[in-house]
């Protein structure tokens, strides 16, 4: 009799455990980015707290992370500009910037052809005179109708785009005298 009571007790405990596990498995849960009535904004995903930095992405270089030196927009780059940096900048510019600014940086991107307002050309005197940090700051924080690209374009890629913008600006005003001797020899 005691043995039967023990077996029944053990089976009862097992049944309770299995039932509670099943409730946890089938219980209410919210998928990422699913609509939720719990929060006032209707989103189940919460925004990251201010200042959150992904593991391994901490930046302790003000020029690199803000485009500023001592709180002023800098005309310096935080790393050496090489051919590979320019090539990366061209690739990222083509992906993120040409829809609005166009391939030449003249503000004649596809959105203009679709009826949207034309962005400024990078070839105006005022934008050529801006420091490199200005372009980085605009990409990071947005400006006017342009929204921030900080979440879409990593810091080093934003700087590569700035380098490519500078190359575009130079390309529209370059003279033969500015060419290296090897390139001058190739001209007809």
Summarize the topology.
Layout: H1 2-26, H2 62-66, E1 68-69, E2 72-73, H3 83-96, H4 98-101, H5 110-113, H6 125-128, H7 132-141, H8 155-171, H9 181-185
Antiparallel strand pairs: 1-2
Description of the molecule:
The protein is an all-alpha fold. The protein has a domain at 69-181: Cytochrome c-like domain (Cytochrome Bc1 Complex, Chain D, domain 2, Orthogonal Bundle), CATH 1.10.760.10. The chain is 47% helix and 2% strand. Helix 3 crosses helix 8 (155-171). The radius of gyration is 28 Å and the shape is elongated. The termini are far apart.
Low-confidence spans: pLDDT under 50, at least 5 residues? Answer: none
CA gyration radius, whole angstroms: 28 Å
Average per-residue pLDDT, rounded, comes to 87
Tally the helices: what do you get? Answer: 9
Structural class per helix/strand content? Answer: mainly alpha
Query: What is the CATH fold-level name of the domain at 69-181?
Result: Cytochrome Bc1 Complex, Chain D, domain 2
Q: What CATH first level of the domain at 69-181 would be assigned?
A: Mainly Alpha
What is the second-level CATH architecture of the domain at 69-181? Orthogonal Bundle
Quaternary status of these chains?
single chain
> Looking at this structure, what is the CATH superfamily of the domain at 69-181?
Cytochrome c-like domain
Q: Report the order of strands and helices.
A: HHEEHHHHHHH
Q: What is the strand tally?
A: 2
Which descriptor suits the 3D outline? elongated
Strand content bin: under 5%
Q: Helix proportion of residues, in percent?
A: 40-55%
Widest sheet: strand order? 1-2
């Amino acid at each position: 009799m005691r043995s039967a009571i023990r077996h029944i007790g053990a089976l009862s405990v097992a049944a309770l455990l299995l039932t509670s596990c099943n409730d946890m498995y089938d219980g209410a849960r919210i998928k990422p980015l699913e609509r939720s009535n719990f929060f006032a904004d209707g989103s189940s995903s919460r925004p990251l707290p201010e200042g959150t930095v992904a593991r391994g992405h901490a930046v302790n270089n003000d020029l690199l992370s803000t485009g500023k030196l001592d709180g002023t927009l800098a005309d310096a780059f935080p790393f050496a500009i090489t051919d590979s940096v320019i090539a990366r900048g061209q690739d990222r510019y083509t992906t993120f910037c040409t829809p609005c600014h166009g391939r030449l940086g003249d503000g004649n991107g596809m959105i203009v052809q679709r009826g949207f307002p034309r962005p400024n050309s990078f070839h105006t005197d005022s934008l050529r005179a801006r420091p490199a940090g200005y372009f980085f700051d605009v990409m990071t924080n947005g400006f006017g109708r342009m929204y921030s690209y900080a979440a879409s374009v990593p810091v080093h890629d934003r700087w590569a785009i700035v380098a490519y913008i500078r190359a575009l600006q130079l390309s529209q005003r370059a003279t033969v005298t500015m060419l290296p001797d090897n390139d001058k020899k190739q001209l007809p």
